[in-house]
Design goal:
alpha+beta; four-stranded antiparallel sheet; 4 helices; 6 strands; 22% helix; elongated
Length: 242
């Protein structure tokens, strides 16, 4: 049995001391992850905790209060964050692949460069969250609130779900995802205004004759769909950011 102090993010003060069933020479990332689990189990205060680099693979953090916590680079692969409070949390570069964020609150959370592959964001609140460069590959965004969120350079490839900010279309071989300003077809992400102006040579340069045949067949229909069912802007300067 060993003890491990979990500190505050900004002041370095001790939030709580966890009792861990591991050796003192266990890597700090694993010990920190175990300390978080201990804290959740024992109802410790995790508000504003410094959890930089914590290993929380498949951790059960259901309903946890991680308001303002520093989870920079943390491994939350497959973690259960159902209904968790991550308001203002720093998840810069965090691994959230397959994580369950159903109904989680991520108000003003920083998800810059985070990986959300197959993450479940059903009904999650991402109000004013920073998703710059985040990967939402195959993420479920059904009912997610992205009002005021930044999607600068975010990958929307095969993202799915129904919400007013991100629309999804699937026809033939290329999945199509668009916001109020940006459209991603397959792995190609550009401003909608740029897509409208691309000539055959530009399209063929993306994926050869296959892409060109697709574009010639569906181009008009795609833009008709966008015009008839536009996405709600997430932020005023999205076009500038893209």
């Amino acid at each position: 049995m060993s003890k491990f102090d979990v500190l505050k993010r900004f002041t370095g003060e001790v939030l709580f001391t966890a009792e861990l069933d591991c050796d003192d020479d266990t890597p700090s990332s694993i010990r920190l992850g175990l300390a978080v689990k201990w804290g959740v189990k024992n109802r410790a205060n995790l508000n504003g905790a410094n959890l930089d680099g914590a290993s929380l693979y498949r951790a059960n953090l259901n309903g946890a209060n991680l308001d303002g916590a520093n989870l920079n680079g943390a491994n939350l692969d497959g973690a259960n964050l159902n209904g968790a409070n991550l308001d203002g949390a720093n998840l810069n570069g965090a691994n959230l692949d397959g994580a369950n964020l159903n109904g989680a609150s991520l108000y003003r959370a920083n998800l810059d460069g985070a990986s959300l592959y197959r993450a479940n964001l059903n009904g999650a609140s991402l109000y004013r969250a920073n998703l710059d460069g985040a990967s939402l590959y195959r993420a479920n965004l059904n009912g997610a609130n992205l009002d005021g969120a930044s999607l600068y350079r975010a990958s929307l490839y095969r993202a799915s779900g129904i919400n007013e900010y991100i629309k999804c279309i699937q026809i033939d071989q290329y999945p199509i995802t668009y916001t109020s300003e940006v459209m991603q077809i397959g792995c190609q992400r550009h401003l909608i205004a740029e897509w409208r102006g691309f000539d055959d040579e530009r399209i063929a340069g993306m994926d050869g004759k296959k892409a060109l045949r697709f574009w010639r067949k569906y181009k008009d229909w795609i833009f008709q769909t966008i015009d008839l069912c536009p996405a709600t802007p997430t932020k005023k300067n999205e076009a500038d950011a893209a």
